[in-house]
Amino acid sequence: MIRLALIGIGTGNPDHVTLAAVRALNAADLVLLPRKGEGKSDLVDLRRLLCRNLLSEPSRTRLVEFDLPQREGRDDYLGAVDDWHGAIAAVWGELMDHHLPAGGRVAMLVWGDPSLYDSGLRIAARLGQAGRNLEVEVVPGITSLQVLTAEHRIPLNRLAEPVLITTGRRLRERGWPADAACVAVMLDAGGAFEALPPEGLHIWWGAYLGMDKQCLIKGPLAQAGPRILESRAALRVRHGWIMDIYLLARTGPRPI
Questions:
Q1: Nearest CA among 48, 46, 118 for reference residue 88
Q2: Which CATH architecture has domain 144-250?
Q3: Which parts of the sequence belong to the Tetrapyrrole methylase domain (predicted)?
């Protein structure tokens, strides 16, 4: 039996790691640390730091780093993602078989929360479908959406109204969702809000949320949008990667 813990670790601030996450990490025999290339070394560096600071008996827990397979940039997006998940599942399985041939506890440190735009659960399901005796535990973490609203000092929703969470790809392809008052946008490759008529829209944007390089911009979309695009491009060049999120809302008589 392999017991796999998907542990949400928040968005870059070690203070956001929960006590439940600390317990799950210390229960692991093996921690798998994905590397996403030199341009995103900050992400594995933070995971290393958390393990160094939070493991109470580091000698009993094996840390194994691995290179994350790359997703093909083809037009068939869902097919490419499906193939990518299969490749990652194969790597996970090989590492578990090699390092825990008799079974044990494995931990994966997941950026944000394992349930919100993260594929850890889908990849773990593939391992079970392949016949592995696998039990999965999910430890929730603070999401970038929570940090965004906290740093901008705003509630996520308008009074008695819903919030729609979507992706930059979806926003660019389909425009403003029908009947939505507030839209949270994740996984935007850059400036999907440009596809929207800016009149009557307000934006709250954040990059590297929870980290020391955090950047925030807010305002009417017509004025803030160009500043966000300029800042985003400069930050990507400076750091070699960027992770950002934003909330859009229609302006009106009700405060957000």
A1: 118
A2: 2-Layer Sandwich (3.30)
A3: 3-224
